[in-house]
Structures are given as C-alpha cells and as structure tokens.
Amino acid sequence: MMPALLVCEVTVLITTARKRMYHLLFDQRTHSGRRFEAFCGLFALLSVIAVFVESGLGTQYHLTYDEWKLFVYLEIGFTLLFTLEYILRVLCWPNPRKYVFSFWGFIDLATILPLYVLWLWPEIGVNYVFAWRAMRAIRVLRILKLLRYMPTLHSLWQAVFNARHQLILFYAFILIVMVVAGGLMYGIEGPPNGFTTLSTSVYWAVVTVTTVGYGDITPHTGPGRMVASILILIGYSVIAIPTGIITAHLTNEFQKQRNARLCPNCHKGNHDEEARFCKSCGSALPKL
C-alpha cells in the first residue's frame, strides 16, 4: 500500500513540476513567463552578436590562442544554456514528439547542433574549415529564437495566413509574367546580347521586375528596352499590392482582438491591447 501511495505522490509532483515548467517556458501571460522569455531572448541576441564579432575579428585580425579561447568558451556557454532550454521544453510539452518536429523544435535544435557537430567532425584539412564556416553560419539561426518572444507575431502570421489565397494568386500571376517576359527577351535579344538561354532570360525578368537591376544583362534593342520598361512599371506592384493585402488583413486581425476583449460588466469592446480596465465603466478587463 505504501509503495503505491509513494508512486502516486511522485507522479503528482512530476505532473505539477511539468505544469509549472510549461507555464514558465511557454505562457507569456504570466510575469515569470515574460521574465524568462526576456532572459532567453537576451542570450539569443548576445550569441548572434558574438558570432558576428568572432567572424569579423577572425577575418581582419590574427587572433591569439587566448582570444580564440574566449569565443570558444562563450560558444560552449551559449550551447549548454540553449541545450538545457531545449531539453526542458521537450520534457514539459504535453506531446514531446509533436514539439520536436514543430517549427520551433527545429529552430531550437539547429541552434545547439553546431558545437556538437564540430566536436564529432574530423579535423581534416578543407573539410574541417568548411564545417566550421557552415556551423558558424547556422548559429545565426538563433536570431529566429527572438521571434518566439514577440507577442504580436501571432497576429502577423494570422494576417498572412488569412491573405494566403490572394497572395498565391498574385504571385502566380507575377510568375506567369516572368516566364512570358523571359521568353520575349530570349526571342528579341538572343544570345548575342547576353540572353543565352530561356532560364537566363527569366532570371533577368525577375531581377528587373524587383527593380534590383544588377546590370549583368541588359537589353540592347528598342523592343527589348520597351519590355524592360513595362517590367519595371509592373515591379512597383510587386511591392505595393502584397503590402496592401497584408496590411488590410492585419488591421482586421487587430480589430478582432480589440473587440474580443469585452468588458465582463458592461459588455463593451474595442479596448486597446495594453488596456487593463474598461474605458466605459472602469471594470477589470480579462487578460489576453
């Protein structure tokens, strides 16, 4: 009887600890959760800054062995911290497998892998140098961890998701225009003017419609310049139209959130996100 009671108590303690850890790691509505997310966000930002400083100093100056050791110790510290965070997130998530294969799970895993891969990678000439550069670049993905700590990111994502049909239709139209314009330029200009293949012509169309204009390939004939002018004018819509679509959906999303915060006393909505009390009767508002 006693062992069964002991097992029951241990199970309750583990469950309680997992719930508390879950609220600490994932619940941004609590004070402790916001403090923890600020702590993790700060270290993610510092780790990215360290990567850029290391890359700049390593390229421009010949660092001594002790100076390199400082960056190594920093990387070990950041990796251990993020490893502990990753393990705790997996353990306290209701379905650990689902978290591991989620977007944030992949991001968290990618930010801790570089150091472990380098420890296992054989130090053989060019392969080691390539591995070091590749792993150093992957560490920059830690900047994506900051997205988790931005409360308005959900609204932006929801707006993009709601506008997906309009965006897909618009970019499908732009893709058709790119292919048609590339085919026209391939027929008008041809290989003598740099449009050697159809894919090269489509590449030129993409560069032109985005108003980048590298200048590596340029039209030399009158009809070719006319097509280029049309593409440049179309290019302004590539920026303006998606921006307008997303802005409209984002405004609707913010309006829904404001209307969702109804006062429990007078049942009036349209409150700001930061508001704590009703602007009509002064009653406390429910938390988001």
TrEMBL record:
Organism's domain of life? Bacteria
The record's annotation in Gene3D superfamilies points to: 1.10.287.70, Voltage-gated potassium channels. Chain C (1.20.120.350)
Residue ranges of the TM segments = 38-58, 70-88, 100-122, 168-188, 194-214, 226-250
What keyword terms does UniProt attach to this protein? Ion channel, Ion transport, Membrane, Potassium, Potassium channel, Potassium transport, Transmembrane, Transmembrane helix, Transport, Voltage-gated channel
Record flagged with keyword Membrane: yes
What is one term from the GO cellular component aspect held by the record?
A: voltage-gated potassium channel complex
Q: Which GO terms describe its molecular function?
A: voltage-gated potassium channel activity
GO biological process terms, semicolon-separated: action potential
**What is the protein name given in its UniProt record?**
KQT family voltage-gated potassium channel protein
Q: Which organism is it from?
A: Buttiauxella agrestis ATCC 33320
